[in-house]
Amino acid sequence: PEDDTAVIQRRSAQMQMIGPILTSLDALPPSAALWRAAEPAAVAALHCPFCSGLAAGTLPRTAFGAYIAQDHFFLAAFGDAYAQAAKLLPPAVREKHGPAVAALVAGIESERAGHAASAAQWGVTDISSVEPLAATREYCALLAAAAEQGSLGVLFAAAAPCMRLYAWLGVQLKAVARDGTPYHEWCARDTSLRGLEAPAGRT
Fold this sequence. Notes:
Layout: H1 4-26, H2 30-46, H3 49-56, H4 61-88, H5 91-118, H6 134-148, H7 152-176, H8 184-189
């Protein structure tokens, strides 16, 4: 085991390496800085077996069906969270942001309807009875807790990481997806869902 001196030296060396990175991030707009810090994780997600299989067309249909089912459940909580937050907003804020939130909720419902319509194609016989995985359930709980605060800012902070990673992955997959695979049409259409095609460029 390391003694206290060794631990201090190691942590000091780590901070010396991290310092210039943090300094460079400070010069960026907040959203760009956050994206830059998270970009390695985004690249890792792009190269995970699921996304690689989507692009190549080799992903098992059952795996894609499982994704559709989980996304269907998630989107219900996603829409509910925004609808709940809109109800809790002060009148002046609701007047300003209400139409945008309503449009977002309508888009979510449209996407859920598309999932339900195509579920059988991917081997999901009853999408309404699918049980959420632990990760899905926990993120939905996070969104619900954020919505209860009645602040769009808090809710956006809880939702933005998922939305922006999803949109960025869609852009990347569209660029490399092979023609003629079962997933090519999905990759092509899903690029701009949730309206965040260029996450690093927005503040």
